[in-house]
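> example.struct
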């Protein structure tokens, strides 16, 4: 027997946490509402566009979303997500789950699941699996905001990273890091006496990457991403710095100043 409890649309999001609940409890929510499911072996939460037959409605008025898009299934003491629709589900880290794949286990805590809709639309299914010592419970309105991870950059490091990341800071829809040579040319024009060249830019940025990798940031070493590396390491570095607000569009002013 399925044990589901309804969540109203006005419940709010799950990213800030959930109310106290037994370990393994699943929350699933969209703007149309959601459910809470007990961690019973064989339990299933079905989601998709057809609100008359699913437990959680996703993309109700978007025909690009399948009527039965997927399911959340409890087995082997874990929750798994499977795809039954025409379009893949996108998980964090750009992990895609296709209909012909085996279900993928969900991690404890918060997982945003995206379903591509018509045009550039994306529909969000929020999922939260309560852990054995879950501390991510819903915040009260007056609670202090949790600080982001603070990455400190020297003036030289910041200048080099900004030169590398300028397309990201300009909000290019498909950004890539500029090449070491391009960054060096820009910096040499800005600081003619500083000895900027491609090798120096690379050394300065590598020092930042390795320092952040040692602090637990994933995807910043060749061993992690594998060959060919391409722009992956610099892309991951820039994304982490921007996601943590250590790097902001306002930093582009450094590239226009005579005295950065």
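> example.seq
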């Amino acid at each position: 027997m399925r044990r589901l409890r309804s969540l109203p649309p006005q419940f709010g999001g799950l990213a800030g946490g959930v109310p106290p609940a037994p370990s393994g409890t699943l929350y699933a929510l969209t703007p149309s509402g959601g459910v809470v499911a007990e961690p019973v072996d064989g339990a299933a939460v079905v989601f998709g566009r057809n609100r008359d037959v699913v437990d959680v409605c996703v993309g109700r008025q978007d025909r690009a979303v399948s009527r039965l898009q997927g399911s959340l299934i409890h087995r082997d003491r874990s929750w798994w997500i499977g795809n039954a629709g025409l379009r893949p589900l996108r998980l964090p880290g750009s992990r895609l789950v296709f209909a012909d794949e085996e279900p993928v286990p969900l991690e404890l805590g918060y997982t945003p699941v995206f379903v591509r809709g018509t045009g550039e639309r994306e529909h969000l299914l929020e999922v939260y699996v309560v852990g054995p010592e879950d501390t991510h419970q819903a915040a009260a309105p007056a609670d202090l905001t949790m600080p982001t991870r603070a990455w400190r950059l020297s003036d030289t490091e910041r200048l080099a990273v900004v030169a590398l990341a300028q397309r990201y800071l300009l909000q290019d829809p498909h950004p890539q890091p500029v090449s070491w040579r391009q960054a060096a040319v820009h910096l040499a024009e800005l600081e003619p006496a500083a000895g900027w060249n491609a090798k120096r830019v690379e050394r300065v940025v590598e020092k930042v990457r390795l320092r952040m990798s040692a602090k637990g940031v994933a995807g910043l070493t060749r061993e992690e991403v594998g060959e060919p590396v391409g722009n992956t390491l610099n892309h991951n570095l820039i994304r982490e710095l921007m996601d943590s607000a250590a790097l902001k569009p306002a930093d582009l002013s450094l590239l226009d100043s005579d005295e950065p």
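> remarks
The first strand starts at residue 4 and ends at 7.
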